[in-house]
Amino acid sequence: MRILVILRQVYEQKSIQWSYEDRKLIYQRNSYNKSDLHALQWTREYKLKADALVDVLILKKEEEASEENKLANFGIQRCFRIPSNGSEKEDAAFISDLLKNESYSLILSGYETEDEHSCALLPLLSYELGIGVLTAVYQLEGKPNGQLTALRKEERGSLQEFTIQLPAAVSVTSHISKLRYHRGRSAPDFTMIEVKRQLSKPEAVRRIEAPEPNIWYADTPSEEIPQLRLLNIMGFASQSNNSNNLQKQTDHLSKAHLYFTAERLVKWLKE
Amino acid sequence: MVICYIPLKEGLAVKHSAHGLLAKARKLSSQVTALVVHCGIQEEDIRLDCDEMVMIRLSEREWPVSSCHIQAISSFQRELSKEGPFLFTSSPLTNEITVGLAARSGSTIINQAMDITMDNDRLIVKRELYGGKACTYEYASCSNYISIDPAFLNYYKTSSKRPVSIRHLDLNVPKNDSIQFIKNKQLSWKEIGLTEASCVIGIGRGVYQTPALDQIEILAEVLNAPIGGSKVADELQLIPRERRIGSSGITIAEADIYIAIGISGSSQHLEGIKNVKHVLAINNDAAAPIFKRCDIGIISRYENVLPQLIAALKNGDGVKNIEDIGYTAAGV
User: Fold this and answer.
1) For residue A15, which of A1, A2, A28 has the smallest C-alpha distance?
2) pLDDT tens-digit profile of A185-211?
């Protein structure tokens, strides 16, 4: 099986800060998108169980320094390095052109980027290439017949199971594998291919600002006592909760109380 | 006109975020169409504040597959005379759908928006960057596909009695062999993480060296609730380190129910459950601070309570008239 892993260079979420004085982002530090690295780690573990050739495609912002040493020991064959202007649409179109003469069975990537929270690259690429796509995969396993079984978390505590007929594009969450950090800076053990690309200015018109919460204007509570008005704003409406003034605790363990507790638990679970 | 794709739970029930989405759409336009792509929901079970509702039925095996949604929505779009923004709530499935629709029509997509406002004929979409460390404002045209993060949608309860015209569209969606849905799988209480479970059980010093620990596991199984605990429970090796709840451990922000067994409720522990909706406390110490935080408290040894509570939950005794029973009726 031939696997392509797409790694996106991002600004690390932990380090970055908004400077209110200069009105711009500061402490920008480059790193690989974490969920993309989880995808690469998965391929390394998959290679131990089955035959696979792994190539990596790095989408890097033009001015950024390269960190290819980090990718040593992953068993990568070739590494394509492509400059990106941040437009997922243009990136997908360019990568699909690049992959026209290649035949990858599986294209892997992380679900979302940690800087821009964008998650459209892989689906866009799959539609360009005309292959199936499944995003936010939680667990991925190979089957002997060449198919893959994937679990995806759509609801809280519930998983959906899919079979994937290859070729396909799959984006994964960080649950897919546990990152193993390779100590020591060994030299890259793969062939590096620099791909030239003429970058255009991104289409989207946008401005970056300080973090601002969404403000909701709710109705003013009508209670006379200020304390009750405050409780209402906090979500403890006195009018709707008819059992508010009743005792909540009991030291007498009756059957009725237990039934009541069980009934409340079931009701809360249904909410 | 604004079209809202109504988020459903497993294709069978409307999610709460649908009402928030429609309220957001109502601020953008007076004409709101709700698109319900389902796999067996009854129209009388849906109460939405919209002008028109279009229902498209897929089979249970087609519903979780995005390509089926894309074909269904595309066929609906062909009937539309006017273009307008298409609003979704963010999820992995809707992410695939929005990208697929945008790729077909050549429109642009904006995912995981916080808010949308109208400025003349353009939309201004607010998004979070770097996990909330900055915000971005993007201009979008009215033919865009925009998905809104459900965390930023207010939970409205619809009280609208607006007449809604309902249309059903029958479609034959061609089979997609590439991605096939097999089944839904529920995570067991042992697999599910504390941060994603809807019900969590917490244990503390009160259960140390007691003979009925297996009862807690049975309750966990009945409620499908993972077991965590206080700092003391971790130190007494009742729970692993990663299951410690509180300021020195994890915060269970998403749980709806927390059952505290033998936990006194220190301020550090209460910090870890500050966002939990409902708390049930079982402790034999009436002065324990957890009783100030709980919705229901039982002052008793947990060994006496749990077998009876488990039996009541399993048999469903007293759970039949859920809406009618109140505190007074229960004799509390």
Assistant:
1) A28
2) 666 678 888 888 888 776 667 888 888
Q: Which of A225, A263, A269 is nearest to A243 (CA)?
A: A263
User: Which tokens in the block code for residue A182?
Assistant: 């390779």
Q: Give the sign of the dihedral formed by CA A220, CA A221, CA A225, CA A227.
A: negative
Please answer whether residues A52 and A63 qualify as being in contact, where contact means their C-beta atoms are separated by less than 8 angstroms: no
Once rounded to an integer, what is the mean pLDDT over residues A46-51? 87
* Minimal CA separation from A203 to chain B, in Å: 10
| Closest chain A residue by Cα to residue B327 | A243
Q: How far is the CA of A201 from the CAs of A90, A205, A252, in angstroms?
A: 10, 10, 72
Q: Catalogue the long-range contacts made by A232-240 (C-beta closer than 8 Å, 24 or more residues apart).
A: none
Q: Does B154 touch chain A (CB under 8 A)?
A: yes
- Could you tell me the CATH superfamily of domain B199-315? TPP-binding domain (3.40.50.1220)
Domain ranges in chain A? 2-194, 226-270
In this predicted structure, the answer to whether residue B137 has a pLDDT above a threshold of 60 is yes
Share above pLDDT 70 across residues of chain A, in percent, rounded to a whole number: 85
Q: What is the mean pLDDT of residues B306-324?
A: 67
Tens of pLDDT, residue by residue over A245-259, are: 445 555 566 777 777
CA–CA min distance A186, chain B (Å): 31
Tens digits of residue pLDDT in B152-168: 887 666 666 677 788 88
Q: Which 185-204 residues of chain B touch chain A by CB within 8 A?
A: 185-187, 192, 196-199
Characterize the bridge pairing of strands B109-119 and B122-129: antiparallel
- Quick check: A189 and A147 in contact, CB under 8 A? no
Amino acid (1-letter code) at residue A153 = K
Q: How far is C-alpha B171 from the chain's CA centre?
A: 29
The CATH number of A2-194 is 3.40.50.620
Using CB atoms, pick whichever of A117, A157, A210 lies closest to residue B198. A157
DSSP A217: -
Asked if the B2-169 domain carries CATH number 3.40.50.620, the reply is: yes
Residue extent(s) of CATH 3.40.50.1220 domains in chain B = 199-315
Residue A180, min C-alpha distance to chain B (Å): 19
Burial classification of residue A105, based on how many CB atoms lie within 10 Å of its CB (0-12 exposed, 13-18 middle, 19 or more buried) = middle
The pLDDT tens digits for A70-98 are 777 788 888 888 988 888 888 899 999 99
Res B158: pLDDT:
64
Token pair, residue B163, equals 């007449």
Distance (Å, whole) CA B98 – CA A118: 13
Q: What pairing do the DSSP bridges indicate for beta strands B227-229 and B199-203?
A: parallel
The residue among A251, A160, A195 whose CA lies nearest residue A62 is A195
**Are the CB atoms for A34 and A21 separated by under 8 Å?**
no
**E-state strands within A62-156:** 76-84, 106-110, 132-142, 148-155
